[in-house]
Design goal:
heterotrimer; A alpha/beta (254); B mainly alpha (308); C mainly alpha (277); B: mainly alpha; MetI-like fold; 12 helices; C: mainly alpha; 75% helix
């Protein structure tokens, strides 16, 4: 049996009594970009946040079913959500570098507070490595001790990607990472995704079908909490099997 | 899936929370426990009788807090009656009429008044306000209208319920203003537009909007009353500290807190006075608790309704 | 429906009315500040620097100033840690039963008659110790300080956008680290405002000191287990004295207290945050 980066088994999520994710079975292969697309309010962000147990910050949220990360159910009895989140990094819709920390410290904080790095030299190396991975090093190497307020939206978002990468996760979750970024920044980030694919599995959430088409290997179409159709990007965009998918892609789904 | 267990965060913070709760309960118990002898000796008379017989001979001692309770409530009500129109007017003025720059200055002034040490109100009240009120308000009113009971007491010193009430009014106005101003600011803009578009004048529109924040005004007044009830030093410097029980505004009186402030120091000389003062403290405690709980509850309920 | 003219007239008198009332409401502040300066400056000018350093019988309030600063310091030492922890707890559990009860309790304590705190601390600390002391006064002030700082801490942290919370947890950090090492530093300005408000409050309190600190104006405090004085308490005593000279001293002390208050208050306002004392 093949081991997937992420696999869900009959995953259901409730907010209070309202079922927002209605039994999803999904398999995301390693080292691919998998895009979950769908209209706003379909449950994309909720689904994404169940992959690193970040959903638990919301007191009302309740989860049924299983989410397997590299074959291990993260909702199992003795699983520590903290260790999961280190393995599964996340980038958010709103570029959210910590405003009170310098660029350097924004990258370093996760490592520092997790006690993952011992010496200053090692930290310097890791910070540089993460920024290089996020294609941001050249732009910020001379101002590592400035605050993120001076960065553009796209730069901020790459800083956040670097912050996540610094922990050397296996999987990167991205919740509409370009929604608040200008077109140039978006292009840079999309380019970055291709680079990152070599080492990471990326799960991308977007409400823009065009972005899904440009970036991903696989696409899942989520509608009203149900996974309508999943498949290789090309296949979904050229020959959608489901009527709803077709409607969504042609913009006639209200 | 979600296991309820004490995590490190709770281990760190919960003790502080529990400590504060225990402290509060302990405080209530201390007052109750120390007041018990007074209840055993005098029963509820301790609250309803107006006598204050301190004596070297314990059997002759007898104390009642009625005058102090009356003075507390009376002066606080005067304070609230003064604070009500001013704080409402202030809120309307600051939100609706003051230019943007002035608005901030007004808010700063009000905040500063709310935070000013009460003893400074006290010294100003005792040396400036009381003589002023005596000369320009009390004496003229007494001379011309002394047939009305509330003006019937000769204002010989000026230290009186009235002076205490006015000073309290000045002190609690900024506090009430802050609550009402915030509430008035929360009125959604569309109501304002709607009222104006009906062709109403600003006065008429404001009247409608005030109706909308009425619960907030009420709770602001209740909380301000709670503040006035607990105020000690400023009041004790202007109320005259006399065991009087009168509706006459210009008569001197006592409040629970100023009674405690004045009598606690020498209460140890007497056998039975201390428990009575604790009983007064207990009354103040409970009045404060009830008033504040009601005020906070009403305010929270209103805020919740508005947000939706 | 009344005619346009009467409506218009009502409108104008309404505007005039609220303007007058508003100015009537803030007038006392100006009058108070002016009076304190007018009466306080001459005595301080006359005594010079010795007003700030001498003992009371030598025409100074030095020990009272020292006492006030000792009390501010000690009460912060006792009250701030508890206040921060309680405020952080109330932020973290806004909807739980204990969290809500905590918030209500803080609001109640915020409005609580301060003299009751003084008497309580007297019975719990001063009487068992057999003496008034700085430490007893500091405890009383700490109880008063606590709810201010806790409420402001909770409110400052509540303003942190949820996304930073997510980002912090997303880094695989424990709740303790997220809260204490990321979110608390993130809202440090707001928390600091709360601390300053608490200090401004504590610096001016009189009633809780009446039966706790004892008063010490003829020598400088030597130990925290012995009586100390405080400026507000000294003013209260001097105002009640029949002597005109004492009243002069009271005005001078009031001016110093006012300046201390402004010293703490102005930095708060410069940041232009909503402040409620």
């Amino acid at each position: 049996m093949k081991e997937y980066a992420i696999e869900t088994k009959d995953l259901k999520i409730y907010y209070g009594k309202k079922e927002v994710i209605k039994g999803i079975n999904l398999r995301i292969p390693k080292n691919t970009i998998f895009t979950i697309m769908g209209p706003s309010g379909c449950g994309k962000s909720t689904l994404l946040r169940s992959f690193n147990r970040l959903l638990e910050l919301n007191m009302d949220a309740k989860i049924e079913g299983e989410v397997l990360i590299f074959g291990k159910n993260i909702y199992g009895e003795d699983v520590d959500p903290i260790s999961i989140r280190r393995k599964v990094g996340m980038v958010f819709q709103y570029p959210n570098p910590f405003p009170h920390l310098t660029l350097y410290d924004n990258i370093a904080i996760g490592l520092k507070l997790n006690n993952l790095v011992k010496s200053k030299e090692e930290m310097d190396k890791r910070v540089r490595w993460a920024l290089e991975k996020a294609s941001l090093w050249d732009e910020v190497k001379d101002r590592l001790y400035e605050y993120p307020a001076s960065l553009s939206g796209g730069q901020k978002q790459r800083l956040v990607i670097a912050r996540a990468l610094a922990l050397k996760p296996k999987i990167l979750l991205m919740d509409e990472p370009t929604a608040n970024v200008d077109p140039v920044g978006t292009k840079n980030i999309e380019k970055l995704l291709f680079e990152l694919k070599k080492d990471y599995t990326i799960v991308l959430v977007t409400h823009e079908p065009a972005q899904a088409a440009r970036t991903s290997d696989f696409v899942g179409f989520l509608y009203l909490g149900k996974l309508i159709e999943v498949g290789p990007t090309k296949y979904i965009f050229e020959k959608p099997k489901n009527e709803l998918t077709e409607k969504y892609l042609t913009g006639s789904l209200v | 899936m979600k296991i309820k267990r004490l995590d490190m965060f709770q281990i760190i913070t919960l003790p502080a929370v529990i400590f504060v709760f225990l402290l509060f309960i302990l405080m209530l118990s201390v007052y109750f426990y120390n007041a018990l002898p007074a209840f055993f000796r005098e029963g509820l008379d301790v609250y309803f009788k107006n006598t204050w017989q301190a004596s070297e001979i314990p059997s002759k001692e007898y104390y009642g807090l009625a005058a102090a309770i009356w003075g507390t409530v009376y002066s606080s009500i005067i304070g609230v009656l003064i604070a009500l129109p001013i704080s409402v007017a202030y809120s309307i003025f600051v939100i609706d009429y003051a230019p943007k720059k002035l608005k901030n200055i007004f808010i700063i002034i009000s905040d500063m008044m709310a935070g000013l040490p009460t003893i400074i109100y006290g010294i100003w009240g005792a040396f400036i306000l009381v003589p002023f009120l005596q000369k320009y308000i009390m004496i003229p009113l007494y001379k011309n209208l002394s047939f009305i009971p509330i003006f019937s007491y000769p204002p010989t010193t000026g230290y009186s319920y009235f002076s205490a009430g006015v000073l309290l009014g000045i002190m609690i106005t900024p506090f009430a203003s802050a609550i009402i101003r915030e509430a008035y600011q929360m009125v959604p803009f569309t109501y304002r537009e709607a009222a104006i578009s009906l062709g109403l004048t600003r006065y008429e529109a404001t009247k409608i909007l005030l109706g909308y924040i009425k619960p907030a005004i009420v709770s602001g007044m209740i909380l301000a009353f709670g503040r006035a009830v607990g105020e000690t030093v400023a009041v004790s410097l202007v109320i005259g500290n006399s065991f009087n029980m009168s509706v006459s505004l210009f008569a001197p009186g006592y409040t629970i807190s100023s009674l405690i402030a004045n009598q606690f120091g020498n209460a140890y000389i007497y056998r039975h006075m201390l428990p009575v003062l604790y009983a007064g403290g207990l009354a103040l405690f409970i009045i404060g608790l009830i008033v504040n709980v009601i005020g906070i509850y009403l305010l929270m309920r209103w805020q919740k309704n508005v947000r939706i | 429906m009344s005619g346009y003219k009467t409506r218009r007239g009502k409108d104008i008198s309404f505007i005039i009315g609220i303007t007058i009332l508003t100015f009537l409401g803030i007038l006392p502040l100006f009058h108070i500040i002016a009076t304190v300066f007018i009466n306080g400056v001459p005595i301080i000018a006359k005594k010079g620097i010795s007003f700030l350093t001498n003992t009371l019988s030598n025409g100074g309030i030095g020990p009272a100033i020292a006492g006030t600063f000792i009390l501010i310091f000690l009460s912060s030492l006792i009250g701030l840690p508890v206040a921060l922890l309680v405020g952080i707890y109330a932020y973290e559990y806004p909807e739980s039963k204990i969290g809500r009860a905590t918030k209500t309790l803080l609001q109640i304590m915020l409005e609580f008659p301060t003299i009751l705190v003084g008497v309580f601390v007297m019975s719990m600390i001063a009487i068992p110790m057999g003496t008034y002391s700085a430490i007893a006064g500091a405890f009383a002030l700490a109880i008063i300080l606590m709810p201010y700082v806790a409420v402001y801490t909770q409110e400052a942290m509540r303003e942190i956008p949820f996304t930073y919370r997510e980002a912090s947890f997303g880094l695989g950090l424990s709740r303790v680290k997220v809260i204490f090492q990321i979110l608390v530093p993130l809202s440090k300005r707001g928390i600091l405002t709360g601390v300053l408000i608490g200090l401004a409050k504590v610096a001016g309190e009189t009633a809780p000191l009446l039966f706790t600190v004892g008063g010490l104006y003829e020598s400088y405090p030597a130990s925290i287990t012995e009586p100390v004085g405080a400026i507000p308490l000294l003013i209260y005593t001097l105002v009640q004295s029949p002597s005109k000279a004492d009243h002069m001293m009271a005005w001078g002390a009031s001016l110093i207290l006012l300046l201390i208050f402004l010293l703490i208050f102005i930095p708060i306002r410069l940041k232009l945050r909503e402040v409620r004392l």
